[in-house]
Amino acid sequence: MPPFARHRCLAISRGPRLHYAWIVALVTFVVLLVTAGVRATPGILMVPLEAEFGWSRAVISGAVAINIALFGLIGPFAASVMDRFGLRRVVLCAIALLAASVALSTQMRAEWHLVLIWGVLVGAGTGVTSMVLAAVVATRWFDQRRGVVLGALSAANATGQLVFLPLLARLIEKHGWRAAALLVAGAAAIVFGLVLLFMRDRPEDLGLRPYGQTPDLEPPAKAAAMAPLAALAYASRTPAFWLLAGTFFVCGASTNGLIGTHLIAACHDHGISQVRSAQLLALMGIFDIVGTTASGWLTDRYSSRHLLFGYYTLRGLSLLYLPATIDSGATSLGWFAVFYGLDWIATVPPTVRLTTEAFGRENTGVIYGWIGASHQLGASMAAFGAGAIRTRLGEYRLAFVIAGGLCVLAGLAFLTVGRRTFPARAPALAASGELA
Q1: What is the mean pLDDT of the chain?
Q2: Buried (b) or exposed (e) across 327-352, using 16+ Cβ within 10 A?
Q3: Distance CA 119, CA 116 (A)
């Protein structure tokens, strides 16, 4: 880093009011927001690609499924690579790959182009800037307010829809889908510059402690995180891992796999315009900011098991009722968007907290990476499965019912198996920030 830049960073970070952790958190929020917009783009391209090239929903959904699977599977290895080569350097490489790949997608002509670009390349790039990035940043930079920060960073995944989808829908309507792809690529290029200027790997790089760490205490010795495969082998021998990974599989299937990928296409089947359905997803994004940030605040204070029971059960009931809601038209779907948005990824803060309780702070990134991989495998299966159901049956009703039933079962798991797996923790300890 140039001397003047380091001096500027130190001056900012040592100021009386603003810890540099908040700048890193803000940059991370923007990274997650834009990469969420990149991931959400195939959902709004589905109908235009079907119309221009004649590709079936099953084919397009298959490319999206590969994208989502890589997004999850790369996460655990990304956490390990960040530890070895530096968070900033790895994120820069990922964003450069995304910008180039999305721009290249405007030249697609064959199905394999779709699979390679939107499936493999975009999936690999977003895999590095996945929910693992939020967990790593929150754990490294914050001792206090970690739940709130993690909630806000998790909300960025839905805020990307808020920012991009309505605009992309209008661009597609007026100028075609290629203009939308170029806009997303340009946004990724801008984020590259922000990361280059402001992102830092650890507080120690600036001579700081994590936000909220008591200055008169010696910082604990940094324990080395387990390697990805060793962490998986260790975690897979515990019931805590299987409960968290299994329920997060359902979480992914019921959110970005099903609703995030197919809601716009499902609305199109019922005569609701693409712009209007994109606005519904954006509305979900608005309320997800509220819901997920509030979930982080609640996670700092209340039982994560009880929160997850409530989140999954309410989500399941809303999905079971969705077929009747979508038949009623856009007005009823607006209420669904509000309710569902509040619960979109509110599961993330309590899931990360339980991961830290079970496996330790130093292993949170890599083991949560595997739990996040399960989330994305569920999303991948739902993205492809819902497309196959639509192609075969001509409607999405069965896909919504299956997802709703699985969510209810996931919620109940935290009151049965979860009660023995995760003992209750004292609220005072949780509020103190000693746990993630």
Answers
A1: 82
A2: eeebeebeebbbbbbbbbbbbbbbbb
A3: 5
